[in-house]
Amino acid sequence: MTTHPLTVALDSGDTAWLLVSAALVLLMAPGLALFYGGMVRAKSVLNMMMMTVGALGVVIVAWTLVGYSLAFGDDVGGGLIGNPVQYLGLESLVRPDADGTFGIPTILFAVFQGLFCVITGALISGAIADRAKFGAWLVFVTVWTLVVYAPVAHWVFDVSSGSHVGGWLVNRVGLVDFAGGTAVEICSGASALAVALVVGRRVGFGKEPMRPHNLTLVMIGAGLLWFGWFGFNAGSALASGHKAAVVFAATLLAGAAGILGWLGVERVRDGHATSLGAASGAVAGLVAITPSCGSVTPVGALLMGVVAGAVCAWAVGLKYRFGYDDSLDVVGVHLVGGLVGTLGIGLIASAAAPTAVAGLFYGGGLGQLGRQTLGVFGRPRLRVHRLGRARARR
Amino acid sequence: MTTHPLTVALDSGDTAWLLVSAALVLLMAPGLALFYGGMVRAKSVLNMMMMTVGALGVVIVAWTLVGYSLAFGDDVGGGLIGNPVQYLGLESLVRPDADGTFGIPTILFAVFQGLFCVITGALISGAIADRAKFGAWLVFVTVWTLVVYAPVAHWVFDVSSGSHVGGWLVNRVGLVDFAGGTAVEICSGASALAVALVVGRRVGFGKEPMRPHNLTLVMIGAGLLWFGWFGFNAGSALASGHKAAVVFAATLLAGAAGILGWLGVERVRDGHATSLGAASGAVAGLVAITPSCGSVTPVGALLMGVVAGAVCAWAVGLKYRFGYDDSLDVVGVHLVGGLVGTLGIGLIASAAAPTAVAGLFYGGGLGQLGRQTLGVFGRPRLRVHRLGRARARR
Amino acid sequence: MTTHPLTVALDSGDTAWLLVSAALVLLMAPGLALFYGGMVRAKSVLNMMMMTVGALGVVIVAWTLVGYSLAFGDDVGGGLIGNPVQYLGLESLVRPDADGTFGIPTILFAVFQGLFCVITGALISGAIADRAKFGAWLVFVTVWTLVVYAPVAHWVFDVSSGSHVGGWLVNRVGLVDFAGGTAVEICSGASALAVALVVGRRVGFGKEPMRPHNLTLVMIGAGLLWFGWFGFNAGSALASGHKAAVVFAATLLAGAAGILGWLGVERVRDGHATSLGAASGAVAGLVAITPSCGSVTPVGALLMGVVAGAVCAWAVGLKYRFGYDDSLDVVGVHLVGGLVGTLGIGLIASAAAPTAVAGLFYGGGLGQLGRQTLGVFGRPRLRVHRLGRARARR
Amino acid sequence: MKLVTAVVKPHMWEEVRQALETLGVKGLTVSEVSGSGRQKGHTEVYRGAEYDVSLVPKVRLEVVAHDDDLEDILRVMVTAARTGRIGDGKIWVTPVERVIRVRTGELDDDAI
Amino acid sequence: MKLVTAVVKPHMWEEVRQALETLGVKGLTVSEVSGSGRQKGHTEVYRGAEYDVSLVPKVRLEVVAHDDDLEDILRVMVTAARTGRIGDGKIWVTPVERVIRVRTGELDDDAI
Amino acid sequence: MKLVTAVVKPHMWEEVRQALETLGVKGLTVSEVSGSGRQKGHTEVYRGAEYDVSLVPKVRLEVVAHDDDLEDILRVMVTAARTGRIGDGKIWVTPVERVIRVRTGELDDDAI
Ligand SMILES: Nc1ncnc2c1ncn2[C@@H]1O[C@H](COP(=O)(O)OP(=O)(O)O)[C@@H](O)[C@H]1O
Ligand SMILES: Nc1ncnc2c1ncn2[C@@H]1O[C@H](COP(=O)(O)OP(=O)(O)O)[C@@H](O)[C@H]1O
Ligand SMILES: Nc1ncnc2c1ncn2[C@@H]1O[C@H](COP(=O)(O)OP(=O)(O)O)[C@@H](O)[C@H]1O
User: Considering chain B, what is the average pLDDT of its residues?
Assistant: First the structure.
């Protein structure tokens, strides 16, 4: 690792945008804490918020020590995972000569990715609201970081180096996933489903009313989440330019359309729109645009948002039908919304957008839809399988 | 629209700042929702917040589809409005070759401007707090976006192209309005007055006490608004450089001085300062500096802020004298504050500041004061006229 | 001050990052207001928040008029203070030709530094929560800005010009203090101790229970503070590049580790972790990393955070032992945390980090530890001395 | 002496207070309560799940009164609190044996 | 007529309400209170300082009842509210002299 | 048996509770109320508009007591709650016919 001329290539504008983006993703943590905290019953709000804050603590430490290496180190095990000691403690990234791969400092990329892991992990806590022990949660989320998230991130996000087999979902399968529809949204949603099944239902689920106790908090939280999501999505461009701008616009449009989609379903089904619905709709739209923000036109983003809002508004009712207690609808919003976004790319991606891929409705045929489906349904099967075993042991 | 070499001129630093600015302006929406939400009675808080969130949904969709074209398209009707189909659905802005006019991506400019429209529209809801139906509000704000805001934005903000008559308030009249004192503040204030008159008073107005129910929310909201306002004002420089820095400083200084101005009036008139006054004063200062932030020195910004804070503190009492029920004082703060700022340019603009215009007290004579007055009082007359008809029909 | 070619050196990326950083530091004011506001009893929350907001008003005005000149003007009194009329009203910084010293506009630097003063001043209010008159507080914090903060800032932050003796703590003593461990954290902590002693205890201190009334507010506040702290620390790099990235990472890591440090002490001492502990731990870690963020490796940042979290968790109990009523533990968190960070540089600074200084454990010997100790313990003695006199006069 | 307890609609208590004042009755104690009765509660829907909220917000007024004033007090209370719609509430009267004014230690009829 | 006041554990009031409904008793008034008694409060620790919170949250139910229904009401209340653990609460009965339904002006037994 | 209801200043209730404890009276029920009486409310000003807040926050204590303890209870309550300034509050006593401890089903004097 010698000093090489590439280090002069750091772009101050790109770096500024990634500094901001990383800060924005950090802000998603309190945003999520409030979003979730307002949705639980009054007696659980502090416990709920602590789960996000605690996750922030342990995940960042785990990520710094070995997580980043596992996700972005050189292939080990044929691309299953990265070399866990390659960037041990991120020590080697402190010197300027570690930079150069992108126009941004590598250490900044490392913490930006670490914050993705924090948010993904913290999302899961919504599924077990009201009934998780804080200590057990910290252990779970630490293990999950290293055993579930890091490998998935290696497959999806580690695309920088062509020689890495890691990143195979993108490099080989040809999955398009801009900011983490699979690694973040589907992964957190599927993990949440697994955990909700393992942990079991809340006492009184389906009988006692468990009303959200403070919708104002939910609104503040959703506002901060959306704000942070610009960093999440447009920051994933890793540069400040046209691509980031298109992604930014898509993120705005899908969130706005998501509001309308969810409220529309509420209007028709329940007779009136609710503020929880508005907040949820924005989040559903944002979830769906996360993988697709680089692949759709503005009208595509509106479509993505309105469909995700409507579908998720319907999907949150599934838990009553199937009887799993996903307290805050992580499955209904993140798993379902992530699927809408990831598969939707196969339908409405436009070749004019930065990822330059065309979906079925934009003259691209069935090819990309197939690749998206393959990318999505390879992994969950594995996980559900494992889960089946976990339940059997109980 | 062929690829032209200008697209290489995108500046990553300018783009980074505008990406951030747009995100900041989005954050003003929850900021406003909280600011307003805390000021109404407890029973109305969710309805109040929903008006802002709903406006965000419909305005963004309307703006994307035709609003942006109406505001920034080529002149139609002699400059009254832009060509509504020119940028239909913003589809044409997705390709990089749509960039080039500024150092920033055009699609980013389009959504940045769309968020201005969201905030301006949402501001109006404060005038009809406690008594607006959500559905009716959504219809109103959509129509308002296309029929009121888009034309005004065409006159004030569409200055990029010299051949456009749109932008005539700036191009022809010589109005100085940096970030929207007329299009945003005065327009929302005047619209609010109109709507408050049409909708009529709350049941119990002037008799029942209608105390703000949660001043902590008001404070959170004001904090987010101020934070977002840096994007609103300094983002309007559309570049990251000296001009943005001067504007940024003015935005900070006027807000701080606004606090002192309002609290001073409270101290003298009511005997003690209140936290609602502090929050309101900051907002009043920010309103006044919005048009003038590019035209004043730091001391001018302090003056602008302290005067706006004091004048608005006095103006919010007018509604009791004139008997219109502007629930949350959109008129008293935004219309009056916008006037202070827009006309104040004619008095204390300094030639040293970026817009390079001198006001009366800075040796510039009466010329600019005249232009500002003309710019302001051309349009409201039209609107009041229309309003008179509306009321007569009731 | 003639136009010189350096003005072309403004970097749009650096400027973008500093614009954002300044906005982030502004957001720390509402963040602090909420953090403190949630910690007091319900009846004091508005008064508490007003102290921060009021400080924002008066400090910004004082800073604009003469404060900045006192801190960053040419030496007066052998480097004790800057020339108070040099940048009177910041008027001379409006013209572009005032730029050039850094890659950023000078006026932006001036307001960025002004916001540091706001936060430092507002921090003090935590020590006298529940018992300060608003008017008296405004007078105090204005005087303190000019008499305490401006000189200290002159010694620590005014390092730009080699000919200035101001900045002697850094230039001569060789103190390493990246973003204000001495000027901000230790200064606010020591001022808070002084003020708490002069003002005396709350009625009922040590007898009546004075429980924090709203931990959700505390959490929101801590979240905004952390978000803003990225601007505070990484903005202090005054450029968007590798250095800012390393500082950013350290700020994230120390906050996360601070959570774990504080919660660990709570677990052992009190039997269970609390949400107030999590929020406090993050802040303690951030305080300690403020001076040291440019000097440590990622593992060093984790160490700094966990130690600061643990030490501060223990230090907040000291007030009961010594009998001073530091209501919200400004001394226990900011003075103690600031000492941990400033002295800790002498132990765990790494030569690989941007400031290129090695501490004792990183092979640097005792030299830097000595310099840090000297830098810290020169000034407080002065202040305590003065305080003794103040109390004697009562 | 009697204790008059009235449970009324939330926005009516101020009317009742004013009506009592015209009788010269100034002292009263107010608290927020919820009631259940003939008046139906409402249904809230969150994310598609319905929650029945059976309780309706009410305000309780308590007035300790001289025996002689009782009829007048009941009369003005009923008049002031009535809207004619279901849920207007109830008033009940219980006997009081002792009253003390804490500040002065005055007793019974003097203390009211 | 009697006023039955029951102070019970917060999550038990809904059971009590449902039990009363089986008796045909629909009207009742509910309020949030705190209690102190044999049941210990708890200790909260903030930044290392301990705070004793001696009060325990409870819910108070008030039911104005016909004399004849009293025994039934007491019986189902005790049954529904009992968990068997300390802090289950108290029920007390006081005499009521007058009752008025505000909406109709109906009196006494008709008004309940 | 008697029910003693005391409406006192908010920061005095803890004193009253402690005073009762010295008598061996541990059970009591506390609630937040607002009062109106001789003590004036205050005026709040928001954006120049004045709002009269006529109600003053108070705390209500309810104690079910043995007949024999009544005088002692009243005495210590009055002493503990008195500040001597207007608004110190009122105490009133009503007869109680039945008391039940929910947990055990104990009755009347045994249940207190
Ligand atoms: N038996 C009762 N005991 C105590 N409170 C009652 C009783 N019946 C009614 N209430 C109170 O009176 C309120 C109004 O009663 P409701 O039956 O809804 O209407 P109305 O009195 O007009 O017939 C209820 O919400 C409840 O608070
Ligand atoms: N003498 C009393 N007067 C009024 N309320 C009482 C009295 N004793 C108990 N309570 C109420 O009953 C609740 C339960 O009483 P407690 O002594 O804790 O348990 P238990 O009734 O099971 O013995 C208390 O929290 C209080 O609200
Ligand atoms: N007649 C009454 N009925 C019920 N509560 C009363 C009555 N008079 C006073 N109170 C309560 O006592 C409190 C204190 O009464 P107030 O007249 O202000 O002072 P004081 O008792 O010292 O003369 C009131 O706020 C109210 O809650």
Answer: 88
